[in-house]
Design brief:
The chain has six helices and twelve strands. It is an alpha/beta fold.
Length: 200
């Protein structure tokens, strides 16, 4: 684990926001300069960040990482004071603390057909796992849902690592009108052998 204290004493850099993107209303993506974390990150890890000395520690799943560029990507939804303050930051700003990679992800193997079910912001932690499953040669069926079409996030990323992708919206503005669990039931009822279901 790389701590902020280690970086301040040994490396002398802060965690700069290299890129900011609004994926949907109140849902933001940050690409952060964090080479030591990117070097060690694997799908399923998370980081804990803090804006400043008085800031709350916010845990966020690592949605992507690039070892060559030394970047880590996080996605968050503004739901309270801390995440709203986080959402006000812009590309070029820096975070005071970023600790990680943290967590012990479940092992991933080549098992056959895997269904990845993701709703809302849950797409962010699903993507790196789906990519890893796909790279190992599994058949990946992804079911991505949100409240409405404008709340769907990371669709291009999920499509790039899926052999089949199905969409669902609560209000019916895109894909199946209903919940991701309805679509999962339909996939199971097709009779294709499914080795594993990952649901976030």
């Amino acid at each position: 684990m790389v701590t902020a204290e280690f970086c301040r004493k040994k490396r002398g850099f802060m965690y700069k926001i290299l890129e900011k993107e609004e994926l949907a209303p109140k849902i933001k993506l940050f690409r952060l300069h964090a080479p030591l974390i990117a070097r060690k990150a694997i799908p399923g890890n998370f980081v804990v960040l803090r804006i400043n000395e008085k800031g709350e520690r916010v845990p966020l799943t690592i949605a992507d990482y690039d070892r060559g560029k030394g970047t880590v990507t996080v996605v968050f939804q503004e739901v309270g004071k801390s995440t709203e303050q986080l959402g006000e930051l812009q590309a070029g700003d820096s975070l005071m603390d970023l600790a990680g990679p943290l967590g012990t992800p479940l092992p991933v193997a080549r098992v056959g057909t895997v269904v990845c079910v993701a709703g809302g912001v849950g797409v962010a932690p699903t993507f790196p796992r789906a990519r890893e499953l796909h790279e190992l040669g599994n058949r990946v069926i992804s079911i991505v849902g949100a409240r409405s079409k404008d709340m769907l996030i990371m669709t291009r990323e999920m499509e790039s690592v899926s052999d089949e992708i199905l969409y669902s919206t609560d209000d019916g503005t895109f894909g199946h009108h209903g919940f991701v669990t309805d679509v999962l039931k339909q996939v199971i009822e097709r009779g294709e052998p499914i080795a594993e279901v990952l649901a976030i």
